[in-house]
Amino acid sequence: MPTRHSNAARAPNGALRAVKPDTGAASVEPFEDVSEQATPDHVQHANGFHGMKGVGPEGSEQFDNEPHHEPLSPDDPFAPLPFNPYKGNRGLTRAWHAMKNSLAGFRVAIREESAFRQELTLAAILIPCGVLVPVDPVSRVLLLGSVLLVLIVELLNSSVEAAIDRISLERHELSRRAKDLGSAAVMVALGMCVMTWGLIVGPLIVHWIKAWL
């Protein structure tokens, strides 16, 4: 059976190259070497390479030695914070906007929070008493500070409740726990206020009662 002559010959490295059918001479342009396999992208990323640098002297591919950095996810603690257009104010402009926001917070607390109104009424009575009571300056600061602490904790508690209601109004164990913890903080502040006034002003009241009787 006659053998059919092929018009392609195999090079020593395994690549096919064209052969002229009339003379049998090899063409000067070889086909692509099928024995060389390109490095997959996921292998390059796994090895810390992210791009091709060039071709080496023997035809081997050279890659950059710089590691490939994946973009940080939003949950990554080192990810940059998103741009907040409300944080662009500086100097006196920032102080002016902060004061307006604080006054707006006071108005909302007085209008919407009955507990804050009750504690504000109590503070309106106790603060003048703390100023007029004859005690040393440190005791006076403790009396006034304990009253103001109750207002501060109540404002924080109200802000936590507003944030939870903004997320969802459904009944949830974690929402209930957060609100209960805020109420517990207010109760601790009230207890501290009562204890401070009882220890400082209590002996004075007893002395005045005995002197009057």
From TrEMBL:
A GO cellular component entry from the record: plasma membrane
Pfam families, per the entry: DAGK_prokar
InterPro entries linked: DAGK, DAGK_prok, DAGK_sf
Sites where the protein binds substrate: R94, A115, F116, R117, Q118, E119, R140, E154, S183
Sample GO molecular function, one term: metal ion binding
Enzyme class: transferase
Segments of this protein annotated with the region Disordered: 1-27, 44-80
Family the UniProt entry places it in: Belongs to the bacterial diacylglycerol kinase family.
Reaction it catalyzes: a 1,2-diacyl-sn-glycerol + ATP = a 1,2-diacyl-sn-glycero-3-phosphate + ADP + H(+)
Active site: residue positions: E154
Entry's cofactor comment: Mn(2+), Zn(2+), Cd(2+) and Co(2+) support activity to lesser extents.
Official protein name in the record: Diacylglycerol kinase
EC number: 2.7.1.107
